[in-house]
Amino acid sequence: MTFLNPLFLFGLIAASIPILLHLLNLRKLKTVEFGTLRFLKRLQRRNIRRVKLKQWLLLALRTLIIALVALAFARPAADTTALAAIGSETKRATVVVFDDSFSMEALEAEGSKFNRAKEAARVLVDRAREGDETAIVFVSRPETARLSTDRAALREAIEDAPLSFRSADLHAAVARAVALLAESNQYAKELFILSDFQASRLRESDVVSNFADVLGERVEIALVDYRSNAFNLAVEEVATTTRLFKKGGRLGFEATIANHADRDVADAVVSLFVGGVRSARASRAVPSGGRRAAELETTAKDAGFLDVFVEIEEDAVSADNRRYLAPEIPERTRVRIFSDSPHARFLDAALEASEATEAIVSPLSRADAVDPSEYDVAIVVGWKAGMRPTRMKTFVESGGGVLLAPAPESSLSELAAAAAFFGYQAPLAIVELPPDREGVRFSDVDFRHPIFAGMFADDETREIDSPTLRRLVRYGAGGQTVVATPLSPFLFERRLGEGTALILASSPTLASGDFPLKGVFAPLTFAATQYLANFDLNQTPPILVGEPIRLFVEARVSGRALVVRPDGAEEFAEIVTRGSGRYAIYEETDLPGVYRFRSGSRELGAAAANVDPRESDLTPATDEALAAYFGDLGAANAPRTLDPDDDLETATARGRASAELWKPLLIAALILALIETAVARVSKRDAYDEDATS
Asked: Do 335 and 402 meet the contact criterion of CB atoms below 8 Å apart?
């Protein structure tokens, strides 16, 4: 026996009220002797006994009536066939976990898993009776689920549910379903899970929440099973192989194709589209369970943020057949050099020699005053005590790039302050070689670094005419060394947040050596700025559908930014200040593709959102893995597995009778109330006759 509203059991205390009233109303009769009426005493005693008997009967009836009403409101229920005959069928709370992730798009002979799951969900909603509570927990948005008795609204929610491109966390949806079951005070509770139960998405970790306190004996669990291993290839990753982007230059990509099918694919066709136009094509053999890379190359015809995607041919799941990128091809790379004259003249001359670069020189004192949106790359030559270019640091940590170099007069303490501010290793010493000692030359060059990509016409004869350095800042290990000398790294790279810094150990002036006069100076300076301008394309973590886009914008952009979604719809993104930077933040990334940000007619930036590659592996979980999962959840009842093609209404009929007993209890209370009324009327008449006799 279980009470669904156990708090009403406190109402049993009210059953003591009739007893208290009876005790308070007891009258002590005063005896008055009348000689002429003594012969009536025997008759009076018989009447008094009869009246008292009726009073005790009334007391019992009134106490029982209150107790039965209290018990009825406490809603007792029992799992028993005998009581089910006299009680009413218990109300049910049914929670349906609906896997709407794009893996359910897989098409089979009976139709897509997603559409079949919709039909099953409708059946489970329609089987509900008056007063039953039902909730639909969509795996892509479990937090929106609520228990409801409105079957029409639930059917509409199922009908309107789109296939989701978000990464699906089945366990989070199950946890939400359990929370809803815990909220309900219905006696019978059911949990249905409609899913393809991908092995890779069943649980995010080996440790899952234990819900033994909710998933007790009265909770039935059923799995509507859509497991199958459909044929599916996926574009799992796309990376750029071009490090220096420029209009009219090479634009190369490497796409990784994964084969999640149970058979080999001899010729998977991979296509590159730029601006919606097919620009390159390749074919790869991909073994079952394997991955293969495809190189695709085209020419960057236009400047600006490009809409790029790599596509494979249609298969069982189309959502993962494309992967998007939004590289920026600048018209010109804007470089701002912060230096006290004349330390920047060689850098300025080297950059202005290229039509692809625009260089502006500003004094060091302006390092924090210039809006980072006015440059693509910052170069800082020297450092002054008290300098704190916070806006520049935020720019770098948000994906920008900076080149840091000492000035001829820079002290060790000043350079240490610069290192501490940006967060890289502090210099160890400043080495100045006397005139009678030979200068330091390059000892090692990492030609694999992207800075050197395309710098040499013949890669087999790569050679650099090393400068002779007489003043050098000595650094210890840390970061990635690009060019080294016997004393110290000459040029090394250090990650700063989502961006990067290149640190030069020697001043780009003649006071430190002949570096500005060497043939490598101009191409190395240009390549370094181009690398820094394009660094964030492949270094920042990819954005998955459902994750927010955070775009760094210039300070003068205020209010809201216009967002053009992949489907062409337009919405707005709020621009907020975080620290010393300003960002346009857009959270409704529910579609894969490129999202463009604009302010008026000006394009602020673009970002690509892609599906989670883990969703592409359709390999189903085994029965043993499912049993272990629900065992870890603490479920008292092992889940039943249902075939979605069966008659779900019949298959989900409850296996044991259960009844709520509040109705028969109220009926019994009503009958007793009628008896109490009759007995009270007779008792009142007898009491009147007794008083008259007395």
From this structure: no
| Contacting residues for 519 by C-beta, under 8 A, at least 6 apart | 465
* Sole residue written with tokens 């790379």: 333
Q: Which helix (H) or strand (E) holds 60?
A: helix 41-73
Q: Is the pLDDT of residue 173 over 90?
A: yes
Q: What is the DSSP string of 476-500?
A: -S-SEEEEE-SSSEEEEEEEETTEE
311-327 per-position pLDDT tens digit: 999 898 999 999 999 98
Give the global pTM: 0.71
Under a CB-based contact definition with an 8 Å cutoff, are residues 101 and 166 in contact? yes
Task: Judge whether 575 and 551 are in contact, CB under 8 Å.
Answer: no
Of residues 454, 463, 532, the one with CA closest to residue 498: 532
> Which residues 6+ apart lie within 8 Å of 589 measured at CB?
543, 545, 546, 547, 548, 549, 595, 609
512 and 477 in contact (C-beta within 8 Å)?
A: no
CA distances (Å), origin 254, targets 232, 267, 287, 296: 20, 17, 18, 6
pLDDT of residue 657: 47
Closest by CA to 271, choosing from 262, 283, 258, 281, is 281
Angle between helices 662-693 and 41-73 (to 10 degrees): 160
Model confidence over 177-228: pLDDT tens digits?
999 999 998 878 999 999 999 998 888 777 678 899 999 888 999 999 999 8
Closest CA to 219 of 191, 246, 184: 191
Contact 194, 96 (CB under 8 A): yes
